[in-house]
Fold each of these.
Amino acid sequence: MLLKEIEHFLEEDCGHEDYELIVPITTVCNAEITVKEDGLLAGLEEVLQIFDYAGLKYSTEFTDADALRAEDVVVRLHGSAAKILKVERLVLNILGRMSGIATLVHEYVEEAQSGNYHVTVAGTRKTTPGFRKYEKRAIMIGGGDPHRFGLADAVIIKDNHLALMGLEQAIKKAKSAISFTRKLEIEVETIEDALQAASLGVDIIMLDNMTPTKVKECLQLLNTSGLRDRLLIEASGGITKENVREYAATGVDIVSIGRLTYAARSLGFSLHVRT
């Protein structure tokens, strides 16, 4: 974490208050952070940096991506009680949010790849403003791919671009404007648009809100036309844990799923002082 991020997060949570108004700064104690439920650990690296910033001593037997069982003691702390209480909510929020995402991603990856399907489970930009890089890191810890971190990482022609410019014009404009180092992806909703985009030389085709049956049909037509081998095919929209294996079985390279972040439930953690 950047120093300015730690300070921003603490300022947001604490403002100008200080816990030594209640607990003297000289009071020293031990504390433990425990997890309330099974899951996958993420965010530990970040919270240890916060403890370093606060001048707290800590020990842990875990690393990010470790499996957690309910009641595991994730971190043991020693130091100023006021400082421990000051960072308590921040570190629990980070652990809960990142571990919740990593746990959900891991469940999707296991389900998608359970039939020996070599498919990548990717996130989207449907993230919390100001916390995107940590949510993306949680996706990677869970075994997924972060997808774009931002607009500068790749060019994706989406439905609103097509509504304004049309498919062919949008692709030609994008290809003339970007460097050879950046990939060009297009989001399409019909098989006809997918075939046209493939013939115009895009790098990635996102099949948006297509059923698994339609996705499979599209891939077969791309194969028949001799265009499949040089393309990455991504399926997105309406993909759940219940149907992700069905999408993986179609032969797509990637499934991208916004709910990995926007629908992830925080994993439960708590901090208790041990005198």
Note: The chain has a mean pLDDT of 93.
Amino acid sequence: MRVLFRNQSYLMETLLVTGSVAFDRIAVFKDRFKNHILQDKTHMINVAFTVDNMSVHFGGTGGNIAYNLTLLGETPYLAGAVGSDFGDYRTWLEKNGVRLDYLKELPDVLTAQAHVTTDLDDNQITAFYGGAMFRTHEARLDGLEKIHLAIIAPNGKEGMLYYADYFRKHRIPFIADPGQAIPAFNAEELLRLFKGAKVLILNDYEWSLVEQKFKIQNSKFKIFDSVEHLIVTYGEKGSKVWSRDGKIAEIPAVKPTKVVDPTGCGDAYRAGLMYGLKHWFTIERAAHVGAWIAAKAIEYPGTQNHTVDQKELKAFLQSLN
């Protein structure tokens, strides 16, 4: 088994997650949207979909990554902004061991919320309210304790740039994970976001968006002027790791025992990656940990309802040696 700590002082270091904190309100419309939307009237839609059930889940990229880290035995910090309705979510995160020292509660707005309605064809209509998320830059990191590794996950644009500048200034290694926030950035801002990152991680669609922003089609290696490693995920096809030293590694996906809900599996992958890097795994082995816990997330609805059997985790980690 790999030695987890190099020295006693290492025990003082922890992980920092920056990313959105949100409520996911998910409803199922037991029909098909197309049966209720007139194709020649799409310019003047006025439609109400009656749903039979609705579930509320704790979510957001930051909340999801932090939760998955606790399943792996970590006690991460979570930085970001939430609103006046955060109470139950706060209780949940604290119960699971997430440190909220750098989470700012804003009394005059609500926590970010995604209202998702899904029909029988798995089409989705989503209304997203950013709320406190757009004021993430107000969640300052002054007096931050020693951090081994941080991640900048999708969040309010101004906040993401603030965190990137802070990590570079204080020499804190970080993972850049711009995700669904990419369209909000121009090329210069994106460069500012991930310049100096230890890892840039994206799914294949997001990587295509970055290629377009930087006009670097078919040349992933130009990105290494700014980052040490690039990871692109491909869903059930696994992921691929490119490194500045020229190494390329393909990481197979781990097959879940059942597929219930893929939402949040990407956030779980990022948590596994952070865990591995903190414990001095190679980037390839850290990515394997990400693939393993991503499979766990798929087996349950929502993004924070799965668990990890510690004996199974230990056996998996031993298998990586």
Note: The two ends are 7 Å apart (CA to CA).
